[in-house]
Design goal:
3-stranded antiparallel sheet; 124 residues; 10% strand; mainly alpha; Aspartate Aminotransferase, domain 1
Length: 124
Amino acid sequence: CTNQALIALMATVYMTVYGKQGLRELAEQNLAKAHYLAGGLPLRFSGPFFNEFVARCEGRSVAEVNEALLEKNVIGGLDLGRWYPELAGTTLLCATEMSKREAMDAVREVLMTQTAGQAMGARR
C-alpha cells in the first residue's frame, strides 16, 4: 500500500531529524507530560504507563466530559466503554510533545471538578 510506504518514509525522516538523543528527550517529555496530566485524576489502573492512561469519569458520562472540554476548545479522550463494556465510564487520555499545558490543565480541571462534585454530593 502506498500509504504504508509514506508512513515509513515519514517515520524515517522524523527519527533522522531528531537523532538518538532527540528521540530520548522527546520520550522523556512525553512521559513527563502524561504524568503531569494524570496527577490527581481518578485512574482506572494503577500500573505504570508511558504517555497514555485510562481515567474514570465519575459522576458524568464520557460524552458529558468531552462536551465540557469542547467548550474549552480541547478534544477529550476516547470513550473506552464503546468498545469494552467493562470499561464503561472511562476515557483513554494521552499526552505528547504537542500537548499544551493549558489543554492539560483544562482536562484536569474538568475531570477533577466532576470528581469533587460527586464526592460533595455523597457527603450530603
